[in-house]
Amino acid sequence: MLGGPSLRKRSAALVNDDLLIDLGPDIMAASHMHSCSLDNVQYCLQTHPHTDHLDLSHLLSRSPEYGVVGAPVLNVYASHETSERAAETFERNLAGYSLLSSEAEKRLNFKIHEVQPLEPFMVGPYSVMAFPA
User: Fold this and answer.
1) Segments in the chain forming alpha helices (H)
2) Can you say how many angstroms the Cα of residue 39 is from the centroid of all Cα atoms in its chain?
3) Dihedral angle at the C-alpha atoms of 119, 123, 128, 132, nearest 10 degrees?
4) φ, ψ for residue 128 (rounded to 5)?
5) Architecture of 9-117 per CATH?
6) How does pLDDT run along the chain (133 residues), one tens digit per residue?
7) H/E element, 15
8) Which of 56, 59, 87, 116 makes an SS bond possible with 98, Cβ 3.0 to 4.6 Å?
9) Does the global pTM surpass 0.85?
């Protein structure tokens, strides 16, 4: 039986040290378990809004209450549906304000970019194309 980094967690992947695919619920545990820093993550490709791929509570840890200072802006790339559902859930269950608001951008030091399926776009140095599923 394989152990260590072969143990499966819920969805997330780190490319190089700056691109995260899915902000899954196990990302912090996996980061600590495998001594893999997330300090340089500047980009997140969010595949869809299901909770096994998107844990919005992680965004709260980017707020001043958690002592985060000097972190790079987190640019989140998601479909319109994912952005809307995330904003509704975040406002209803976590913070009382929308993720799509300027308050969220400033307080959480992040920005959501809506992407269209089959339209290539740049994410920092990465060329990306989203496919509908």
Assistant:
1) 27-33, 57-60, 80-89, 102-108
2) 13
3) -60
4) -130, 150
5) 4-Layer Sandwich (3.60)
6) 666 666 667 778 899 999 999 999 999 888 888 888 888 999 999 999 888 899 998 888 887 778 777 778 899 999 999 999 999 999 999 888 889 999 899 888 899 999 999 999 999 999 999 998 7
7) strand 13-15
8) 87
9) yes
